[in-house]
Amino acid sequence: MGKVIKKSTKKTSTQLSVRLGTLELANPVITASGTFGYGLEFKAYMNIDNLGAIITKGLSLKPRKGNPGPRIVETPSGMINAIGLANIGVEAFINEKLPLLKKTKTKIIANIFGETVREYSELAKRLSDVEGVSALEINISCPNVKKGGMSFGTDPKEAARVVRAVRKATRLHVMTKLSPNVSDIKQMVRSVESAGTDSVSLINTIPAMAINAETKRPVLGNVMGGLSGPAIKPVALRMVYEAASVATVPLVGIGGITTAVDAIEFILAGASAVQIGTASFITPSASESVVSGLKEYVKKNGDIKKLIGALKV
Amino acid sequence: MNSTVIYNKSIATDVHFLLRLKWSEKKIPTPGQFVMVSVSDASTSLDPLLRRPFSVFDAGKGWIELLYRVVGRGTSLMSTLKKGDKVDVLGPLGKKFPTPKEKNKLIMVAGGIGIAPFYLLSKTLKNSKKDAVLFFGARTKVDARLSAPIKKLGIKVKVSTEDGSLGRAGYVTDAVLDFIEKDSVIYACGPMGMLKATAKLAKDAGVLCYVSLESSMACGIGVCLGCALKASEDVKKTKDKEYVLVCSEGPVFNSKDIEWEKL
Ligand SMILES: Cc1cc2nc3c(=O)[nH]c(=O)nc-3n(C[C@H](O)[C@H](O)[C@H](O)COP(=O)(O)OP(=O)(O)OC[C@H]3O[C@@H](n4cnc5c(N)ncnc54)[C@H](O)[C@@H]3O)c2cc1C
Ligand SMILES: Cc1cc2nc3c(=O)[nH]c(=O)nc-3n(C[C@H](O)[C@H](O)[C@H](O)COP(=O)(O)O)c2cc1C
Ligand code: FES
Q1: Which ligand is nearest to the CA of A175?
Q2: Residue B159 CA, distance from chain mean position
Q3: b/e per residue, A111-149, with b = 16+ CB within 10 A?
Q4: What is the DSSP letter of A107?
Q5: pTM (2 d.p.)
Q6: Fewer Cβ atoms within 10 Å of its own Cβ: the N or the C terminal residue of chain B?
Q7: Interface touch B38/A36, C-beta < 8 Å
Q8: For residue A281, which atom of ligand 3 is closest to its CA?
């Protein structure tokens, strides 16, 4: 009996594994940047070894303090955040978090952002020197920074400049994270692909705002922020679907995923893997539940890889 | 954790409720800590999406109690919970009130629903500390009834009402002023304006003051960075920090650590 069970779990695990080009993941479930801290915080609530990969909070060369509050507001089935990319900085990440984090067998992906192309490339170099980081996710799309961020993410040429610089600076897998705030996502995908990205993740949060009619003021300290959560799932699905029509590199779907069924929808639309964001705030172990749900799915239906882009239109 | 409702009943007014839940977590909440409550069943409804934070009002063997005021959609939904219903609760979270020192005279200052964390604090005070006083600021004499449970514990309660319908008329902080001695320590929870005034009062009198603060929260566990409030110049200099996180570094703070002018 024991043998049979072992065999079937082995089968399940190969049926759940996915490849993003050079990056092999035990399963397609990745935690999204900024929603999973530096990973360690979640050890009290789940087994982080069960994930496909963990993406860190966005890292910059120097620590950043972030925006004045209020930084978040709830909206129908979603939330808007204007955290302002607060983070401990790449050195503190390498010295304080990574030594503990790299003990997990889950792949670690460092999310990076800068205000200049040079900053991106320096971050890429620095993180390539250390052991424990398997890939870099380039955030060219965060809508919260007044300088830099936005222009890289909305202009295909600027985006390509960043990707090219990072590509040159590292031998790690490079994932480029796209902003939904563009009129033609396909052009964006082509542009970052030709600049050498190994995979593309999408979408980042959607620029949004909330107003308090009583006080006649914006709710967020920063006035505008980024919308995330189930509210953005239909937009994200559409963009992954469009991106898949032109992409030659693997796609990673992000936006409002809370269950395994949501994840499967993204995979059908063309994603090879998915990221879980806001859902981790509501249930810290949400990402682990998505893995369990997908495990059940492949037991019944077979290899997850067969689902990628299998949407019947 | 999925908890079962033991009861959910209105107390004092028709907008205040006491919710008692079964508690099987190993960690027993301490005074000042809070929990995050899923007000909708996440498996069937994605709206309201985020959990709501509530101070622990009371806790015993196998149960916890929350005292809440209905202010919006989430708390309205909570008010419909019935015995036997399931609610998902995350906690206990945050830092507790420091245990008051033997030499200090404890002054508690509460405004409105800010009274919630003081019941458990009062209950766990050592006998020698039962000379503690609670100053309670309420809108009306009906709201002032919320202080009855604490009074029952033998704590002296001094009520102020904004409309003068009971006790002293006016803001609770005015009442506290005459009462501060040099060995007093103040613990406060309530609306921001009241906390700000209390912090100033404590600063002017040169006494220690702890405040329990509120902020919009998404995660409650220190990862979204959404609940940040401006830290004081002092904290900025000594700890190189511009913000403090209410959920994980608080909700209880030394009032000196907060930049009150920026709130
Ligand atoms: C650490 C902490 C402990 C708390 N303890 C308690 C408690 O013991 N008992 C209790 O009744 N409440 C407590 N609160 C406040 C409680 O979390 C809010 O009242 C609740 O989240 C409102 O949810 P809602 O969906 O009903 O209101 P919403 O529909 O979200 O909002 C309705 C109205 O209430 C306002 N509001 C929402 N949240 C807050 C807030 N945190 N502070 C001030 N105004 C707010 C909104 O601006 C809006 O005007 C606590 C908050 C924190 C951060
Ligand atoms: C509070 C918060 C902080 C975030 N921080 C980052 C970040 O630092 N870098 C980044 O690339 N994306 C960041 N994101 C975007 C998420 O990674 C994700 O793309 C987005 O939230 C959509 O997914 P979701 O709907 O599952 O949350 C953040 C999102 C939230 C809600
Ligand atoms: S509520 Fe998320 S960090 Fe405090």
Answers
A1: 2
A2: 17
A3: bbbbeebebbbbbbebbeeeebbbbbbbbbbbbbbeebb
A4: E
A5: 0.94
A6: N
A7: no
A8: 2
The β-bridge partners of B228 are B245
Instruction: Say what the ipTM of the complex is.
Output: 0.93
Does residue B109 contact residue B186 with C-beta atoms inside 8 Å?
yes
User: Contact at 8 Å (CB) between A204 and A254?
Assistant: yes
- Cross-chain residue pair A81–B226, CB shorter than 8 Å: yes
Query: CB burial class (10 A; 0-12, 13-18, 19+) of residue B20?
Result: buried
3-state secondary structure of A157: helix
Question: Distance between CA B68 and CA B60 in Å, rounded?
Answer: 18
Cα dihedral: A166, A168, A169, A174 (round 10): 50
Rounded to whole angstroms, how far apart are CA atoms B225 and A82?
A: 10
Distance, CA of B28 to CA of A167 (rounded, Å): 51
Chain B residues lying within 8 Å of A65, measured CB to CB? 241-243
Q: What are the counts of helices (DSSP H) followed by strands (DSSP E) for chain B? A: 6, 16
Residue by residue, pLDDT tens for chain B (263 residues) are 889 999 999 998 899 999 999 999 889 999 999 999 998 877 778 889 999 999 999 999 999 999 999 999 999 999 999 999 999 999 999 999 998 888 889 999 999 999 999 999 999 887 666 679 999 999 988 999 999 999 999 899 999 998 888 888 888 888 898 889 888 999 999 999 999 999 999 999 999 999 999 999 999 999 999 999 999 999 999 988 999 999 999 999 999 999 998 77
Q: For ligand 1, what atom is nearest to the CA of residue B68? A: 11
Q: Give the angle subtended at the CA of A133 by the CAs of B228 and A142, to the nearest 5°.
A: 40
Query: How many angstroms separate the CA atoms of A62 and A159, rounded?
Result: 22
Q: What CATH number is given for A10-307 in this structure?
A: 3.20.20.70
Say whether residue A83 is in contact with chain B using an 8 A CB cutoff.
Answer: yes
Of A66, A77, A280, the CB nearest to B47: A77
Q: Does A88 touch chain B (CB under 8 A)?
A: no
* Binary contact (B262, A258; C-beta < 8 A): no
Which of B98, B111, B83, B121 lies closest to B3 in space, CA to CA?
B83
Enter the tokens of residue A164.
């090219």
Nearest to A78 among B49, B88, B90 (CB): B49
Give the residue extent of every domain in chain A: 10-307
Gap from A80 CA to chain B (nearest CA, Å): 10
Smallest CA–CA distance, residue B146 to chain A, in Å, is: 28
How close A126 comes to chain B (CA, Å)?
A: 24
- Helical H segments across B30-110, by residue range: 73-79
Query: Does any CB of chain B come closer than 8 Å to the CB of residue A225?
Result: no
Question: Containing H/E element for A13?
Answer: helix A2-16
Q: Do A71 and B228 touch (CB under 8 A)?
A: yes
Q: How far is CA B246 from CA A114, A126, A291, B55, in A?
A: 28, 32, 31, 13
Positions of A marked active-site: 142
